[in-house]
Design brief:
Length: 621
């Protein structure tokens, strides 16, 4: 490291803080008062002229640096092969890894005349030894920083919803009756046990328990014309929707929204029913606008009605994001509502008599349940062999047009059901999958990648089931896997954008440089290992369990993906507020200090994951 011109800070006993050094911001806010005094007493000031090398890659540093004034850039590699890693400005900390590990990850150079606070290595090590939380911030940076950021959020009603377990809610009692119980006797049981529903044991030829509600019994007597003694077994709804007692309440809300039900059974760890949870109990904790959207969708009679209900989704996302909602929960809720919207529109344009002959698939991020705001339509259709309907093209044109009216823009690549290329019979889909196995090229990789995420949302899902094993068989094709892996590595170094923001209008494209390599890389590894999960977080967990990713990388990848998605969403919501179309670019300079650190950590993980892909598939970046 080049020598700096250093001068001790005259802090005395440090009854007052060092001017310009904010000890109440992360990570120094993790220190107690005495530790902050020790840090302030040890700190020096260092001056680095523009162009001066501060820390060399691979070498130790005698100090941890916090920038007071100026600009520092970090580089990966050495000499002509080096690439820009990140910019560091006032308030940013760097060099901690070089102190802890005895070698720097990057080369750090002053771009402008720069003044830094210099925390000596010995003093820094002492603070790490004395304060486990401070040490964890650096040793397990990404997960700890995310928790720290979450702690800074106001808990609010949603925060309580996120923390409350289903078992802690006010559950209604559960009471079961045999399938042969008569309607009148079942109604008496409802009154006696003061419940709104009954579990019904499986009768002959019935698979599993069911549930019957007071409304079911009333409809059977009035609309169905059944006798008071008719058994309730055939009236019960199956399969029984249940949630675990240890799930968070928000997850139960997602399940109810997705499956269009007002009450679910709660089971303990041994699978025993311990009560039921209804929307009323959930709303006792939080008046969810998602439920209001769901009700409006259930009542919608026209496309305009559906569009009116969907308009509330941006406000729902904004509310959940502002309250610090876990990204996986937020995405599942939005996905559940999107699925309902799509199924309602589908029902509007496809006559009910054809629903068992067609299956609507959502692809890409919607298929993975990772969509947040309404973006491009990505969908396809599976048709029963021999199905003929002259009105199909017009219906699919109407479907795509209706989604556009509701706020889902057409896919730029025309991956939509109004394109005949994406509506095929079961046999035609089998033929296309076989073609993917025979011809490995860029277009094949593109079509396959988006189809691997396919999820049925309307029509007859059984039409899609026989296609899934055929696609998983493609995971045995090493050449095809290489094409897929190369796509994940083709976007270049994601960290370059932090140093070259002027080339992208002052913004870093987090989807291109971060989200896509992680999502697509996980998708490729999942195909290779025969993993059926669609969701990226689930795929990562399954890959760790299969030994395809080591536990450290398997811990960091979902954390990084959540950080990138949260930062992108925050920028998209800010753009909407400013009347701009939401995109994938994030204004890095406008991020809070901790968010910038999280972004750097996340993009380090992206590069580590890409290195893993290169090693597994023997391809270059």
């Amino acid at each position: 490291m080049a020598d700096a011109i250093a001068a001790p800070c005259q802090a005395g006993a440090m009854a007052t803080p060092v001017p310009g050094l904010d000890l109440d911001s992360p990570p120094f806010d993790l220190l107690d008062a005495g530790q902050k005094q020790r840090l302030a007493a040890a700190v020096d000031l260092g001056y680095f002229a523009a162009g001066q090398r501060i820390i060399e890659a691979g070498e130790a540093s005698p100090h941890v640096h916090v920038i007071l004034k100026g600009l520092v850039q970090a580089f990966d590699g050495r000499g002509a092969d080096s690439t820009k890693f990140a910019d560091y400005g006032p308030g940013d900390l760097f060099g901690a890894f070089a102190v802890i590990a005895g070698r720097a990850r990057h080369r750090y150079e002053a771009v402008q005349d720069t003044v830094c606070f210099l925390l000596p290595a010995a003093a820094f090590h002492a603070l790490l030894a004395d304060n486990p939380r401070f040490a964890a911030y650096f040793h397990e940076a990404l997960s700890v920083k995310r928790r720290l950021l979450a702690e800074q959020q106001q808990p609010g009603e949603l925060g309580r919803l996120m923390l409350t377990r289903v078992a802690d809610a006010q559950l209604a009692p559960v009471h079961a009756v045999p399938a042969g119980t008569g309607i009148a006797a079942a109604a008496a049981a409802l009154r006696e046990h003061q419940v709104d529903c009954l579990l019904v044991s499986p009768g002959e030829g019935e698979a599993g328990e069911g549930i019957v509600t007071r409304t079911d019994l009333l409809d059977a007597l009035t609309d169905g014309g059944l006798d008071r003694d008719a058994p309730v077994g055939p009236l019960a709804s199956r399969p029984l929707l249940a949630v675990r007692a240890d799930e968070v309440l928000f997850q139960a809300l997602v399940s109810m929204t997705e499956h269009h039900v007002e009450r679910v059974v709660v089971r303990d760890g041994d699978g025993r029913a311990i009560g039921t949870l209804g929307m009323a109990e959930v709303l006792a904790h939080y008046a969810s606008s998602s439920h209001l959207i769901s009700l409006r969708l259930a009542r919608a009679q026209t496309v305009d009605d559906i569009a009116g209900a969907a308009r509330g989704m941006a406000d729902l996302v904004r509310q959940l994001h502002a309250q610090g909602a876990k990204m996986s929960y937020l995405m599942e809720m939005v996905s559940a509502l999107n699925s309902r919207i799509l199924s309602r529109v589908f029902a509007q344009v496809v006559p009910a008599r054809f629903h068992d002959r067609v299956c609507l698939l959502v692809l890409g991020s919607e298929g993975r349940r990772e969509q947040i705001l309404k973006t491009d339509q990505d969908n396809a259709l599976v048709l029963a062999d021999g199905f003929e309907w002259d009105g199909l093209p017009a219906a699919m044109d109407a479907f795509s047009a209706a989604l556009e009216r509701i706020g889902y823009p057409p896919c730029a690549g025309q991956v939509m059901v109004n394109n005949p290329h994406w509506r095929l019979t079961v046999s035609q889909w089998r033929e296309r999958i076989g073609q993917w196995a025979r011809v490995a090229d860029g277009q094949t990789a593109l079509d396959l990648a988006i189809t691997l995420d396919a999820r049925p949302v309307a029509g007859n899902a059984a039409l899609y089931e026989p296609l899934q094993p055929a696609m998983r068989e493609l995971g045995k094709d090493a050449i095809l896997l290489r094409y897929l892996a190369e796509a994940a590595l083709s976007k270049g170094n994601p960290l370059t954008w932090l140093g070259q923001v002027r080339e992208t209008g002052g913004r870093a494209d987090l989807k291109r440089g971060g989200v896509f390599p992680l999502v697509h890389g996980l998708r490729t590894l999942a195909l290779q290992h025969g993993i059926a999960h669609r969701n990226s977080f689930d795929r990562c967990a399954a890959l760790v369990a299969a030994g395809a990713i080591d536990r450290e990388l398997g811990r960091d990848v979902p954390q990084a993906l959540a950080v990138l998605m949260r930062l992108r969403l925050g920028q998209q919501l800010a753009d909407l507020d400013a009347g701009l179309p939401p995109g994938n670019g994030v204004d890095v300079a406008a991020l809070r200090r901790l968010d910038r650190e999280l972004l750097r950590d996340a993009l380090r993980v992206v590069n580590a994951f890409k290195d893993h892909l290169q090693s597994v598939f023997h391809v270059g970046g």
